[in-house]
Amino acid sequence: MIVVTGSAGLIGRGIVALLRRRGMAVREFDIRTDPRHDTRDRAALGEALKGATGVIHLAAISRVVWAQSNPVLAHEVNVEALRGLLEIVGGMKSKPWVVFASSREVYGEQDRLPVHEDAAFRPMNHYAHGKLAGETLVNAAREAGIRTATCRFSNVFGSIKDHSDRVAVAFARSAALGGRLVIEGGENCFDFTIVDDVVRGLGLVVDAIDVGESLPPLHFVSGRSTSLFQLADLARQFARRPLSISEAPSRSFDVSRFCGDPERARALLGWQAEIDLEPGFSALVDGFIDCGHDASSAHWLDCLKGSADAEIAVL
Fold it and tell me: Domain NAD-dependent epimerase/dehydratase, which positions (predicted)?
C-alpha cells in the first residue's frame, strides 16, 4: 500500500489515479479533503502509514509567495512535517521507501543553462530554503537505510483546478475568459512541464524504487526555456475573448530564469517529456472555456479556517 500525502493537489490527483489504474492500493492523506490529515500531526500521520510499503510526499506550502508571507507556517509544513514523517518511517520494521517532491527553486539563479542535478544550490526565498532543508533530511534518511528518491519539478501545470495564481493557469484563464493579464518580469524564462508527463515520471520512480535501491535526485522537466513574454504570446494566440496585457516588475524573491537538463531521468528511467507547451496550454484554455467560469482552486488562506492549521498540497 502506498501513502500519498498531498493527494488532493495537482500532481497528487494524477499519481493517485495512475497507481489505482495499475491496481495498486493507495491511501490518500490531504488536509483539504479531511482536516484530520495534517502532516504536522504525527499521530495522524503514523496511523496513515501503518502497512505502507512506500510514501509519495507531495504535501507542502507550495507557492513561493505564500512561503514568503508566512515563513513560520511554511517551515512547519515543508520541513518539520517531513522530519516527522521520516522519523516515523525510520521506526517502522518494514522501512517503506519515500519519494520526496522538491523544486527547481533550490537552484536559485544559475550561470549556465540547462541546469544539471549536480549544480550548486543557491536558494533565494523561504520556499527554496525549505525544499533544500527537506532534501537534506531525505539524504540523511537514505544514509540511515531508508530507500529514497528526490524529484525536482519545474512550473508544472495542466488543470483548471490548479491554483489561480500559477502563471500558466492565470494566462490560460485570461485567454479563455478575457480580462487583464499582468506579466511580472517578461524576460524571465522557465521550464514549463505538463502534469501528465510529471505523473508518468513519478510512476516510473515508483516502479524503480519499489524493486530496487535509492535513486539520485531527478529532474522531470522539458529541457525547454520559455519566457513570460512568449507565454503571453501564446495567450494572445489562443485568446477567445478580448485580452489586455500589462507589465509589472519582477518580485525580488523570484528566480529569473531556469531550464533543466532532463538527461538523467531519460538515462535511468527512459523518461522524457512528451507533451509540448503549446498543445498543453491550448488544452488548458479549452478547459476554462468548457467550464464556463473560473474553476481554479480556492486560495490557500481559505483552508486556514481562522487558524494556522493548514497546508496546501499542490506543487
Answer: 2-212
